[in-house]
Amino acid sequence: MYTNRRDFLKLLSLFTVAGSAPLLQAQENKRAIDSNAPLRIGYLPITDATPLLVAHAKGLFEKQGIAVEKPVMFRSWAQLVEAFLSGNVNVVHLLSPMSLWAKYGSNAPVKVVMWNHLAGSALTVRPDINSVAELGGKTVAIPFWYSIHNIVLQQLLRANNLSVTEKEPQANEVKLTVMPPSDMVAALASGNIAGFIVAEPFNALAEAKNVGKVLRFSGDVWRNHACCLTLMHEQDVNERPEWVQKVVNALTEAQVFTLNDRLETAKILSRGNGYTPHDQKVLEAVLAPTEQQWANYIKTGAIQHPEWHQERIGFQPYPFDSYMEKLVEVLKETHISGNNAFLAKLDPSQVARDLNAPQFVKKAVEQGGWLETFNLQNGWTRVEEIAI
Predict the structure, then answer these.
(1) Predicted structure pTM score
(2) Going by DSSP bridges, is the β-strand pair 313-314/139-142 parallel, antiparallel, or unpaired?
(3) Both 343 and 257 in a single domain?
């Protein structure tokens, strides 16, 4: 969703201390004027934003006594990050690796209060490509270097003895290019790229237009991985904990609603309701695929671990430390363009303690009686599973 290269470079600059400093100062100034600012949500028009939008549409914030403004849709990560760091919005969804970059690349005081969703991404390729190995010598688009998409793709490429390049690829290489998700389907159709890995509903849109097919779901590689996290300002967490609790209560209930009524959720998010520009049928294919569709994905190999019982997009709000720790580990072995020196210094367990603020969602789940709804009845820890 980078409208041009300038937008992409802008995002790179935001995740530096020098680039973020004036924005963080602007946030401080706003806070001094209005320390009890209403809830202001920023989002991109992708299914990752589902809980934020459902909570607004169903009046769940008002139910908690929270004053909320209409969510603001942004067209790029750069615009969203700039609005968040400067305090123009105070709750956003952000790619999980991007939260690390914000915290340690720009020294932004941010906290992960919950997960937005599980999985919800896929590697989609031209119809004539039938295996990851066939991507050798070709170009694949990613939404950003700091993304679960880049991590999962590189895991798949390494397993098929393919290396990554940013130049013209040799037969044993795959060129990765950063591209706006909204441009990916057209680029695939025109033959400019051989595939892309990105959040929904762009994979489903490529299928609907018959220009691409899902080669592998990301959640079938990293079981129940988080893609986007819900970020809030650390000062709100420290100084307005009751307010934060109410926001998290509403977002957790929104995930419960989505799990109970996926078709209605697709309708809420669809074109015409003011939240996203996407067709309802395409969103239904993501949120509520039929049993036949799922059987076909198993048959084609897009799903290789049916015993995991993954959903195309799932919902579970608790931010497991084990995921954040594993995320740091795999990022260190993933090719990332640009300045990434800070990654080498990160201690995985320390990062999890620094970034995650799980106390709010834990309380929301327990008080709501939703432990079994989210399969959390066995506790608040888990073991990460990555299987190519």
Answers:
(1) 0.93
(2) unpaired
(3) yes
